[in-house]
Prior knowledge:
Layout: E1 2-7, E2 12-19, E3 23-31, H1 33-39, H2 44-63, E4 73-79, H3 83-100, E5 104-108, H4 109-114, E6 128-133, E7 138-145, E8 148-154, H5 160-170, H6 177-185, H7 210-222, H8 228-253, E9 258-262, H9 269-278, E10 284-285, H10 289-292, H11 297-306
Parallel strand pairs: 1-4, 4-5, 6-9, 9-10
Antiparallel strand pairs: 1-2, 2-3, 6-7, 7-8
The protein binds 5'-O-[(R)-(carboxyoxy)(hydroxy)phosphoryl]adenosine (KG4) and zinc ion.
Amino acid sequence: MKILGIESSCDETAAALVENDTKVISNVIASSLELHTKTGGIIPEVAAREQLKYILPVIKEALQGREIVEVDALAVTVGPGLIGSLLVGVETAKTLSFVWQKPLISVNHLQAHLYANWLEGRTPVFPAIGLVVSGGHTDLVLIKDHHEFIRLGGTRDDAAGECFDKCARLLGLGYPGGPIIGKLAETGNPKRYPLPRPMISQDNYDFSFSGLKTAAFALMRREKKINPHDFAASLQAAIVEPLVEKTLRVAEDYQVKTILLAGGVSANQFLRQQFSQRIPLPELFIPSPKLCTDNGACIAANAFFSNKAVSWKGIQANPGLEIEEGV
Ligand code: KG4
Ligand code: ZN
């Protein structure tokens, strides 16, 4: 069985063909990153206009010359994300589903990120804890099985990726900030600049990054000459430590069998190292960096396991879609 996964929730336009649950046949991603680098961040309308240009060529490339008859179903991200961007993928998928007479499966972008962990030859065992860390979300999710995702906590304000991006912008480092800060931090001293680890000792599964962002801004104003490597390393440690601590705590409280990382920030080398040092490999799942950021392959993988094909008529973009709230 082959599923064509389509993703357009933020600035990427992506499509992938995945076969028999987890074999990636193609994974095509077009990004309008260069345009956003110029403006220091995403301008939603600019992103959506670019996606309109890319969506059909990207789908065509993902099919790799195959006849439509070889595709069994389509899957598309319906939310969360930017409404203009989501509409490009959702309306394209609905049209193709109608014209090709193929079932269409709607996918939650946040859950789909976690499915990148099924695409690289190992199978996570349930119950699992998922940490989804992206530009717009930071969520701790209990996954009891493929149909039961419960959000146990997450950020109360900014997402971890947003903190990377905004701090990098303030330093004039460019966009997106996460990879730039990660690279600078490789040769920096994480103890040079004291920054808070918000909510790290609180007895809950929540995070907060907006106070850290303010503390980083204040530090930059106070210090006449800031060392960008040491600043990047200090900021990165302040973001990563609460992520690791709270994930390990929730994993222990819920006695899970595996821990899954997902989302753009899980491409961060320091975050990956910190988890790898504390959790043995059989229990830890971290996608390869290409599958951490937005892609169509994890959309298709999620669709295989959710197994809820419906008619295109019932599918709508939902920018505010969340993972179901738990306790
Ligand atoms: O999951 P994603 O591609 O898109 C969203 O759904 O948001 O995540 C994008 C976020 C951005 O904030 C970006 O700065 C961050 O992921 N990111 C990283 C790294 N690569 C991407 N953050 C830290 N280190 C990285 N290597
Ligand atoms: Zn994402």
